[in-house]
Amino acid sequence: MSLVVQIDQNGGPEVLKLVEVSVGQPGPGEIRIRHKAIGLNFIDVYQRSGLYTLPMPLKLGMEASGIVEAVGEGVTHLKVGDRAAYASQPPGSYCQERVMPAKCVCKLPDDISFETGAAMMLKGLTAQYLLLKTLPVQGLEKGDFVLFHAAAGGVGLIACQWAKALGLRLIGTAGTDAKCQLALANGAEHCINYSTDDFAVRVKEITGGKGLKVVYDSVGKDTWDKSLDCLRPFGLMATFGNASGAVPPFAPGILGNKGSLYVTRQTLFTHITTRESTQAMADDLFAVVQSGKVKIHIDQQFPLAQVQEAHRALEARQTTGCTILTL
Ligand SMILES: NC(=O)c1ccc[n+]([C@@H]2O[C@H](COP(=O)([O-])OP(=O)(O)OC[C@H]3O[C@@H](n4cnc5c(N)ncnc54)[C@H](OP(=O)(O)O)[C@@H]3O)[C@@H](O)[C@H]2O)c1
Fold first, then answer.
1. How far is the CA of 28 from the centre of ligand 1 (A)?
2. Is 61's C-beta closer than 6 angstroms to any atom of ligand 1?
3. What fold is seen in the domain 135-265?
4. Mapping DSSP to helix (H, G, I), strand (E, B) and coil, where does residue 112 land?
5. What pTM was computed for the model?
6. What does each C-alpha distance from 250 to 49, 119, 244, 257 come to in angstroms?
7. pLDDT tens-digit readout, 213-263
8. Looking at domain 2-123+269-326, which CATH architecture does it have?
9. What ligand 1 atom has the least distance to the C-alpha of 219?
10. What's the 183 CA to ligand 1 centre distance in angstroms?
């Protein structure tokens, strides 16, 4: 039996309920994993609130670490007793133990703790595909500025450090001066408090009027228009989240008017459809964390039973870095 967080309907954090379920045995291509720690992500909020609609009842959570307890037929990259971590569909990681597809589960290197593994897989693989694979047509070179919104958040703090390691000059945004200080301490070269300052004006000043080759925007509705204004001709708007709400429909003509811009809407799950691509990206993440160039900041921890409080804190913009649920 396993305790698992489930919802029967969309709504606020109060719909999150702990229930007990039986776990069962893994089928072909599956494993059973006993969790040691669980990662919290903003996508969990979208699935809970109903911004992303999924069938009910719904088990939440897409990131965790633990020990492999049983291996189904055809699984060759994991064995019983392995330390492992994952970012994966289907949701259901907010639990003690589960059966799940093995292909996105990676062996966790011995020198990376379970807590770090649980915190970093979804957020770190996202930073990986954004900074290394979601590139403007002009490419990115060392010394280029990039704009990364919500720079003091889970994905954001990883991106600040990884961008610096790649030789990029990251301009962050964040909602308070304290969060800006945190982003600056973690590799951002500039950080704009977008609650008080006009970030498009500041980006123009910082880049000497040139604008940027790429903006990484996970805030969505509130930042969309001004993010487009930060781009130079042929620049890339890489939108990958909706923390402030979904971006409303727009007329493509606006991209022409603002300088023949490109827009892409990326999601991690397209990048990790195969075992090979997942492992290649995870190897990159493990290497940059093991090198010390990227430190995973676990700034909040909540016991699994306090998952409602964890969601409230994340939605209220009270968190920085990563948040985990403990068991
Ligand atoms: N597409 C993908 O593949 C993918 C994968 C992972 C994450 N994401 C997205 O990346 C973003 C970051 O994810 P995360 O889990 O690391 O979360 P997070 O950054 O730790 O938390 C979200 C942050 O967004 C900012 N924000 C701005 N306006 C907000 C609003 N109205 N309500 C709430 N927050 C607001 C807040 O920072 P400030 O207070 O500093 O503004 C908040 O801390 C999310 O939008 C998530 O959906 C996308």
1. 35
2. no
3. Rossmann fold (3.40.50)
4. coil
5. 0.99
6. 24, 34, 17, 13
7. 999 999 999 999 999 999 999 999 999 999 999 999 999 999 999 999 999
8. Alpha-Beta Complex (3.90)
9. 27
10. 14
